[in-house]
Design goal:
This is Integrase. This protein has 3 helices and no strands. The two termini are about 25 Å apart.
């Protein structure tokens, strides 16, 4: 769902999670690949 562009709250509702901890753990790897550090590395031709 994160890869498709859904927000954390939407993922929480779909998975019936009451706190963001578990869906955030699922999204960690994806966010690391798409995050600011990755974008900066790409801009600097280091990715």
């Amino acid at each position: 769902m994160f890869a498709a562009g859904f927000e954390l709250l939407e993922v929480m509702q779909a998975g019936s999670w009451k706190t963001p901890a578990m869906p955030a753990r699922y999204g960690e790897r994806l966010w690391a690949q798409c995050g600011a550090a990755r974008k900066l590395a790409t801009l600097q031709n280091r990715a």
